[in-house]
Amino acid sequence: MKLIAILGSIAFAACVSSGSVCEDDHCVCPATEACQHTCSPGGNDCHVQCAPNETCDVICAPGEQCHVEASQSSHSTVDCNGGVDCHVTCPIGGCTVTHCSGADCVVACLGGEATLVGTTASCP
Predict the structure, then answer these.
(1) Contact 123, 105 (CB under 8 A)
(2) Is the dihedral of CA 48, 53, 57, 63 positive or negative?
(3) Other C-beta atoms within 10 Å of 63: how many?
(4) Tens of pLDDT along the chain (124 residues)?
């Protein structure tokens, strides 16, 4: 049980810092904070899980994977930055996903179907 508490503390500390929510490009945002994260080129692929009922703003690294789980957030804005694999799950409150194109651009809307105009997808 002690090991689980220690691992949980380490995982939480990896996502919280002074001035930003996520320090690593694989993170789960804290439950009571808005998620604002810019992924770093050359590091881990961008895999971000947004907090429930909070806003979520993510900028992925150019040419890398971009996976954002924002289905429980209040609203989300994601810049796929031309990523090779961009998968975003949007909340009912709506979201906008930019610089996303091709077969590997998958935007799932909980409030209806995504509208794609150029390289910008939006959910109602």
Answers:
(1) no
(2) positive
(3) 11
(4) 333 333 233 333 344 433 445 667 888 898 888 999 999 998 888 999 999 999 999 999 998 999 999 999 999 999 999 888 999 999 998 999 999 988 889 999 987 889 999 999 999 8
Closest by Cα among 66, 4, 2, 10 to 39: 66
DSSP per residue, 56-97: EEEEPPTTSEEEEE-TTSSEEEEE-TT-SEEEEEE-TT-EEE
- Collapsing DSSP to helix, strand or coil, 12 comes out as helix
Helices then strands (H, E): number in the chain?
1, 11
Quickly count: other Cβ atoms within 10 Å of residue 31's Cβ: 10
What is the residue whose two structure tokens read 């909980």? 110
Burial of residue 107, with CB atoms counted within 10 A of its CB: 0-12 exposed, 13-18 middle, 19 or more buried: buried
The whole-angstrom separation of Cα 41 and Cα 44 is 8
Structural contact between residues 122 and 115, judged by C-beta atoms closer than 8 angstroms: yes
Structural Rg of the chain based on CA atoms: 14
